[in-house]
Specification:
With 274 residues, the protein is an alpha+beta fold. It has two domains: 145 residues; 62 residues. The chain is built from two helices and nine strands, in the order E-E-E-E-E-E-E-E-E-H-H. The chain has a five-stranded antiparallel beta sheet with strand order 1-2-9-4-7, with no helix packed on it. Strands 3-8-5-6 form a four-stranded antiparallel beta sheet, with no helix packed on it. A hairpin with a 6-residue loop joins strand 1 and strand 2. It is elongated and about 195 Å long. The termini are far apart.
């Protein structure tokens, strides 16, 4: 059997986001990675093939056009053509496969069982894919993120500012200035306190001087009492002229009732306090 290989990938670009195309081989055995574009999200929807058989009419012959299942056992695609009892001829078929992902398509082949020969084979795979199925495939894709490259980030050497001589000198100078300022503040506060004490002391001395002067004046005034203060007044005796005729005074019963009422009221007021 003569092997002839011819590969063709014919992508058809549309104005939509989906790209469609066809991949063709004329070989009897082929590797799908060399046939289909290796695009993420690519699916195959249709397989079209044709070939010609050369055989005797009475001979048995079966032809298989097939692809292995790359994701498991068996075949992902296999079409059987039985030529037994038929003369040699040409065949053309279009088979829909329902958008099978590229990951499932294994190696392909044309296999013959019986007696006969396959000539001029051609197998075409119709595919489609979204170029932005993986947003990182193109910077123009929605959701694209700029790749992180650590080598693009400059390395910055860290220097502890507390270890810098100029910084340490400035901190020492600032500490000394703060110390002097605190000393001057305490001195100013001390002077204010002394001035305040002197001011209050002067006021107290003046107040005491004023009180002493008043006392002195009072004592001095006592030495100059008028002479009549120690003299006695001349006078006679005073005799009572009122004579009580009846020495038996009757009791006032009304006054007793009033006194009793006042006594009761007083007791109620006392009890009310407790």
């Amino acid at each position: 059997m003569v092997l002839a290989v011819s590969l063709a990938c014919l992508p058809l670009f549309s104005y939509s986001e989906i790209i469609t195309g066809q991949a063709r081989t004329t070989a009897y055995d082929w590797v799908m990675q060399n046939i289909l574009p290796q695009q993420a999200g690519l699916t195959v929807g249709t397989v079209v093939y044709r070939y010609e058989t050369v055989k005797n009419t009475e001979d048995d012959m079966v032809v298989y056009v097939q692809n292995e299942n790359a994701a498991g056992d068996g075949y992902i695609f296999r079409e059987r053509d039985d030529w037994s009892g038929l003369p040699g001829n040409k065949i053309y078929k279009v088979i829909g496969v329902g958008d099978i992902p590229i990951e499932a398509w294994g190696d392909g082949s044309i296999q013959v069982e019986g007696f006969g020969t396959v000539l001029d084979p051609s197998v075409v795979y119709s595919y489609q894919y979204d170029p932005c199925f993986d947003p990182q495939a193109d910077p123009s894709c929605p959701g694209y993120k700029i790749p992180y490259d650590p080598s693009l980030i400059p390395t910055v050497e860290f220097n502890d500012p507390l270890q810098d001589e100029l910084v340490l000198a400035e901190l020492a100078r600032q500490a000394e200035a703060d110390k002097e300022e605190e000393y001057e503040r305490k001195q100013r506060t001390k002077k204010v306190v002394v001035d305040l004490e002197n001011l209050l002391g002067g006021l107290n001395m003046k107040a005491m001087s004023a009180q002493a002067s008043l006392a002195e004046q009072a004592l001095f005034a006592m030495n100059y009492l008028p002479r009549s203060y120690n003299d006695s007044l001349k006078g006679g005796s005073y005799n009572d002229t009122l004579v009580l005729v009846d020495s038996n005074l009757p009791d006032n019963k009304k006054a007793k009732r009033v006194g009793l009422a006042q006594q009761l009221l007083h007791e109620k007021m006392v009890e009310a306090q407790y």
